[in-house]
């Protein structure tokens, strides 16, 4: 065997699980999970590229039990079964590894660790350097002058000194260290209460586990008692955590030769998994890897050259580095740009750590870029560009040429294929591991603001942001070939960015005094509820503790167990308490307590703290790339979750107020999803009801209960409403029965009659199910594609959930598209008029505006017109609108 290059031994099992948990649940268009396969294979490809090894092997565990199970039957007894969506990826992963030319090793009765240990020992005996690629801390026991551990996921390596630094012990004491602590993952008991610090302290003091055992009587305290009580198990524990390096394998390290890759097999395998970027490499002429050149700009000449080159290119990526994630507080620390792949610039303007180099003045840099950023003919690419847009507003820069946002490109291409942050996109589409923010700024309490990061460290991070953003755009835009999805991106999602930016920066006025008063009222009510709960329980307990509540409800009071948690404990989840509350007082009290506590902590207490000191308003953040259906969400504060159906939720809306001389307009679509169902299904009965302006729930009740329209009772209408909305959410007879508190057969009868009266709805639902199974996705009216990863799941429950989503997603998604189209129409109207009115908020199917009092009627009429004409359906789109001094009044 050649000794010029190290032997590479890859702990495949370690990386399999790490890739599965590290990456989002990626799937191909057929719904097959691909995330773990992508992660593992990406790591293998990088290994081959980085090391170009002659001798390599990838080692996996087998399903069969090993000698450790014979010695200790409880070994790994607490490990759950491999998740189904991981299990189905094992064979493709193995096939790809072999097709890449790497030997793949598994041996019944052996663990991967022992195979690796045996091979590594062989190499050491022959003085061959070995790299073990793993994320498993247990492997540290193998490290010696010839063996190094490398973790490609964290980009770290560990030699003898590295083991001492990480563990505080040399490699030869790691087995003793592990035996003392035990291993919860493998269900190997150690000494109770002995953690890393105690284990290191004892081993440093006594030199070995055997010496610790000999001196056990000298160790005091509870931990000493624990040691003495568990001395008998320590030898077996040590045996279980020891990697055995003398296994009879039947092959030698010189047989682990890397073979040429089998391109035809890889093309098929990458094609099946839809790993498109890798497939493209194999099927087209291979392009040279991008050579990166990142430049820091510290002088005016380089700045001018950079600006001139951008202007000449006509398209560039742009990113800001700032002092805060809060766009209202953030100050620009630097900007990064790129106009050709691999070539990016970072222009620091406010790094102010001690001995920081002289930087260009921020005002000078921003004034140099202002003409570029405000030129509509120069196209700007960003990643979550709305944040940068918001930050630059305070510097009097209005981004005009924003043409592409890579976050939204990925989202429109496939909302569920990956997360849409830049790090995830770079990994998913480019196969690149980016520099994470924590790597340059630190973690947790030790994290420093970006202005304190040394420029030398900031440069590769910041410049990479611009470079990756440019390259992501070039790659993802090439995949976004479908005309309908391009239109969703170009005509809907991108134009919405500046509209939402303006809404966020405008903010909404909050009555802090009213919220304080409401908080006090809620606190008083919580005290009453707490006392009532104590009386019902017969003892005091912490109402916020699920564990204590579990003990009270199911152990002391003996209430029936409705559902169990994943760990087998009785559940105290909201749906369980709702069911129990029908018969028992305490669960009902707990439900009200939880609801009020959440309102208090999330809104009445927190909203006043979120008022911006400069504007006097609260500024939320809207998110476009979260919900798979296209619906917007919001955070800090979450405006979508303020309840509208209970009194306290409505009272919180009273604190959202108009300033003096203004009023709020609330305009809300009426039953939009049912109207979309009527349009999509073309059902005559449903379309007629909406076209005639009938109360659709009353009309449904008349059909289902066989009574004249004017004789429908309020209870019949309530039940018909549950049927109408239940069916578009895919509700079963069981679910409907539970909601209406009726017999399951009666609920099934309602459903059967409903489908008899509205056969078009039934036909639409069936055809949609079939289409979803065939294509792996459904679409909205406007062509937004909604992927269904679980539509082919082998577990029936997951498949049925995907079928329900297939029926509902086109309605929710179309409703989301319509409200976005309405926002654009309203924004365009306000922009071209001289009216003193602003869009403030979007909540579900509702728009809220702040309008000058004397202009309210004009704006109200125009907004209703914009919203009702946002889509051309077979039934009328109706908007309910109101006016008030606060949101509740207007709604």
Residue share in helix: 40-55%
Described by the principal axes of the CA atoms, the overall outline is: globular
Task: Quickly count the helices.
Answer: 38
Mean pLDDT: 89
How would you explain this protein's 3D organization?
- The protein is an alpha/beta fold.
- Helices cover 50% and strands 12% of the residues.
- It is built from 38 helices and 23 strands.
- Strands 3-2-1-4-5-6 form a 6-stranded mixed sheet. A 6-stranded mixed sheet has the order 7-10-9-8-11-12, with helices on both faces.
- Strand 19 and strand 20 (785-787) form a beta hairpin.
- The longest helix is centred in the last third of the chain and has 37 residues, at 796-832.
- The mean pLDDT is 89.
What layout of secondary structure does this protein have?
Blueprint: E1 7-11, H1 12-22, H2 35-51, E2 56-59, H3 67-71, H4 84-87, H5 90-99, E3 104-105, H6 112-125, E4 130-133, E5 147-151, E6 156-158, H7 160-167, H8 174-181, H9 196-206, H10 209-214, H11 221-229, H12 234-241, H13 263-273, H14 276-283, E7 293-296, H15 300-313, E8 315-322, E9 332-340, E10 343-348, H16 362-373, E11 379-382, H17 385-393, E12 402-405, H18 406-413, H19 422-430, H20 437-441, H21 455-479, H22 483-506, E13 508-510, H23 512-537, H24 546-556, H25 574-581, H26 585-604, H27 606-609, E14 617-618, E15 621-623, E16 633-635, H28 647-653, E17 656-657, E18 662-669, H29 672-681, H30 684-691, H31 696-705, H32 714-728, H33 733-740, H34 744-757, H35 759-775, E19 777-779, E20 785-787, H36 796-832, E21 837-843, E22 846-852, H37 856-868, E23 879-884, H38 887-890
Parallel strand pairs: 1-2, 1-4, 2-3, 4-5, 7-10, 8-11, 11-12
Antiparallel strand pairs: 5-6, 8-9, 9-10, 13-14, 13-17, 15-16, 18-22, 18-23, 19-20, 21-22
Helix pairs in contact: 1-2, 2-5, 5-13, 8-9, 8-12, 13-14, 15-16, 17-22, 18-21, 18-22, 19-21, 22-36, 23-26, 25-26, 29-35, 29-36, 31-32, 31-34, 32-33, 33-34, 34-35, 35-36, 36-37
């Amino acid at each position: 065997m050649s000794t010029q290059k190290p032997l590479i031994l890859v702990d495949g099992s370690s990386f399999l699980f790490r890739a599965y948990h590290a990456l989002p649940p990626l799937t191909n268009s057929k719904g097959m999970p691909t995330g773990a396969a992508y992660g593992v294979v990406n790591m293998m490809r990088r290994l081959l590229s980085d090391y170009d090894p002659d001798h390599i092997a990838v080692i996996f565990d087998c399903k069969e039990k090993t000698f450790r199970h014979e010695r200790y039957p409880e070994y790994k007894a607490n490990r759950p079964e491999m998740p189904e969506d991981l299990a189905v990826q094992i064979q493709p992963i193995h096939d790809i590894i072999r097709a890449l030319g790497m030997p793949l090793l598994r041996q019944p009765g052996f663990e991967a660790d022992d195979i690796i240990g045996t091979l590594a020992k062989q190499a050491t005996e022959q003085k061959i350097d070995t790299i073990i690629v793993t994320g498993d801390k247990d492997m540290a026991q193998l490290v010696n002058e010839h063996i190094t551990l490398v973790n490609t996921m964290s980009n770290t390596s560990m030699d003898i000194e590295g083991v001492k630094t990480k563990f505080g012990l040399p490699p030869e004491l790691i087995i003793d260290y592990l035996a003392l602590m035990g291993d919860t993952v493998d269900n190997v008991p150690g000494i109770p209460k002995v953690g890393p610090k105690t284990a290191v302290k004892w081993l440093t003091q006594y030199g070995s586990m055997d010496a610790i055992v000999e001196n056990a009587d000298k160790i005091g305290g509870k931990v000493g008692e624990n040691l003495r009580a568990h001395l008998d198990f320590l030898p077996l524990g040590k045996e279980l955590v020891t990697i055995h390096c003398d296994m009879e394998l039947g092959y030698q390290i010189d047989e682990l030769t890397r073979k040429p890759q089998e391109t035809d097999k890889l093309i098929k395998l990458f094609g099946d998994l839809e790993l498109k970027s890798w497939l493209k490499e194999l099927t087209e002429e291979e392009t040279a890897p991008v050579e990166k050149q990142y430049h820091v700009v510290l002088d005016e000449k380089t700045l001018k050259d950079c600006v001139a080159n951008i202007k000449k290119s006509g398209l560039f990526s742009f990113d800001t580095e700032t002092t805060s994630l809060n766009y209202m507080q953030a100050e620009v620390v630097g900007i990064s740009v790129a106009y050709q792949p691999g070539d990016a610039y970072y222009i620091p303007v406010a790094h102010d750590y001690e001995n920081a180099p002289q930087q260009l003045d921020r005002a000078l840099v921003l004034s140099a870029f202002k003409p570029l950023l405000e030129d509509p003919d120069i196209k700007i690419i960003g990643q979550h560009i709305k944040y940068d847009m918001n930050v630059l507003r305070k510097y009097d820069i209005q981004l005009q040429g924003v043409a592409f946002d890579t976050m939204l490109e990925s989202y429109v291409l496939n909302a569920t294929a990956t997360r849409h942050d830049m790090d995830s996109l770079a990994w998913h589409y480019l196969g690149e591991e980016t520099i994470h923010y924590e790597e340059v700024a630190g973690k947790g309490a030790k994290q420093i603001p970006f202005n304190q990061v040394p420029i030398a460290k900031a440069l590769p991070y910041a410049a990479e942001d611009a470079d990756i953003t440019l390259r992501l755009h070039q790659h993802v835009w090439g995949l976004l070939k479908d005309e309908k999805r391009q239109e969703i991106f170009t005509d809907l999602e991108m134009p919405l960015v500046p509209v939402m930016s303006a809404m966020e920066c405008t903010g909404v006025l909050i009555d802090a005094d009213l919220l304080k008063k409401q908080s006090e009222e809620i606190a008083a009510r919580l005290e009453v509820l707490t006392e009532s709960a104590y009386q019902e329980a017969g003892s005091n307990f912490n109402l916020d503790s699920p564990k204590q509540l579990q003990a009270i409800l199911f152990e002391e009071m003996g209430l029936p167990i409705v559902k169990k948690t994943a760990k087998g404990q009785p559940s105290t989840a909201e749906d369980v308490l709702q069911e129990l509350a029908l018969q028992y007082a305490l669960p009902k009290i707990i439900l009200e307590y939880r609801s009020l506590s959440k309102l208090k902590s999330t809104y009445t207490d927190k909203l006043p703290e979120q008022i911006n000191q400069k504007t006097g308003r609260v500024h939320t953040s809207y998110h476009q790339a979260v919900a798979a259906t296209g619906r917007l969400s919001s955070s800090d504060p979450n405006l979508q979750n303020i309840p509208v159906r209970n009194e306290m939720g409505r009272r919180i809306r009273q604190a959202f107020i108009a300033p003096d001389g203004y009023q709020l307009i609330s305009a809300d679509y009426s039953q939009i999803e049912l109207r979309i169902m009527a349009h999509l299904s073309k059902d005559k009965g449903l379309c007629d009801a909406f076209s005639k302006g009938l109360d659709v729930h009353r009309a449904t009740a008349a059909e289902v209960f066989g009574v004249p329209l004017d004789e429908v009772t309020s209870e019949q209408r309530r039940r018909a409403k549950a049927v109408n909305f239940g069916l578009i959410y895919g509700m079963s007879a069981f679910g409907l029965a539970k909601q209406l508190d009726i017999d399951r057969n009666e609920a099934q009868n309602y459903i059967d009659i409903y489908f008899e009266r509205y056969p078009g709805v039934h036909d639409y639902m069936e055809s949609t199910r079939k289409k979803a199974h065939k294509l792996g996705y459904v679409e909205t009216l406007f062509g937004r594609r909604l992927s269904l990863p679980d539509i082919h799941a082998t577990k029936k429950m997951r498949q049925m959930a995907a079928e329900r989503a297939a029926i509902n997603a086109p309605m929710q998604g179309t409703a989301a598209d319509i409200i976005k189209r309405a926002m654009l129409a309203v924004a365009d109207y306000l922009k071209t008029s001289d009216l003193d009115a602003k869009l403030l908020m979007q909540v579900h199917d509702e728009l809220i505006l702040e309008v000058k009092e004397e202009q309210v009627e004009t704006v109200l009429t125009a907004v209703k017109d914009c919203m009702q004409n946002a889509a051309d359906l077979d039934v009328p789109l109706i908007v309910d609108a109101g006016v008030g001094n606060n949101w509740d009044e207007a709604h």
